[in-house]
Amino acid sequence: MSEPVPRPGGVGRVHLRPTLLSDLDFVLTVESDPHNLPFITPWERTQHEGAVRFPDFRHFIVEAGAGYAASGFVILQGCRNPHRSVELKRLVLQHHGQGQGRACVRLLKRMAFRDLHAHRFWLDVKVLNQRALALYASEGFVEEGRLRESVRLSGSLADGYDSLVVMSLLDREYLARQALGLELA
């Protein structure tokens, strides 16, 4: 069996395609997965519908693997921000530890800086999500600060609060990483 050729807009075996309204059942299923819930604040269907329709957002289905099956979704916000500050609002995958998150982050950085002409690409991540914090730091994101106990935890984690770490990557930092061969061309 031969390896599939990467699709345009993909990295290796990961591809992003615009989310359709017909994809939202899948999006809600991935978002409500018990393995993902501790790390995100789920949205209602109407919020996802708005992100699919509103031009300031980019909502994508992550397709991965040999057959490019749907494996998660991502949301960018601020795509028309006059300050050129684009937010990675959400990255949720079905399968973890397979390199799909890193591949998505690399695609999204390229999209933010090359296609959306961002000056600043930023995100926030729960302190609880140590795997994501390590990934973002290894991909050049710099911690800007913490929003202490700003999100409520519940469910299997028991009631309590977690802090958010705000991280960003600036266009000049991205270009420096590109010059060192650390980013996609």
Structural class: alpha+beta
Q: Name the shape in a single word.
A: globular
Radius of gyration: 16 Å
Return the CATH class. Alpha Beta
Q: Tell me about the biggest sheet?
A: 8 strands, mixed
Euclidean distance between termini CA atoms: 29 Å
Keywords for this structure?
single chain, 185 residues, alpha+beta, Aminopeptidase, eight-stranded mixed sheet, 5 helices, 8 strands, globular, disordered N terminus
Notes on the structure:
The chain has 185 residues and is α+β, with helices and mostly antiparallel strands. The chain has one domain: Gcn5-related N-acetyltransferase (GNAT) (Aminopeptidase, 3-Layer(aba) Sandwich). Helices cover 28% and strands 34% of the residues. The chain has five helices and eight strands; from the N terminus they run E-E-H-H-E-E-E-H-E-H-E-E-H. It has an eight-stranded mixed sheet, with helices on both faces. Strand 3 and strand 4 form a beta hairpin. The radius of gyration is 16 Å and the shape is globular.
Please give a quick description of this structure.
The chain is of the alpha+beta class and 185 residues long. The chain contains 5 helices and 8 strands. The protein has one domain: 3-Layer(aba) Sandwich (Aminopeptidase), CATH 3.40.630.
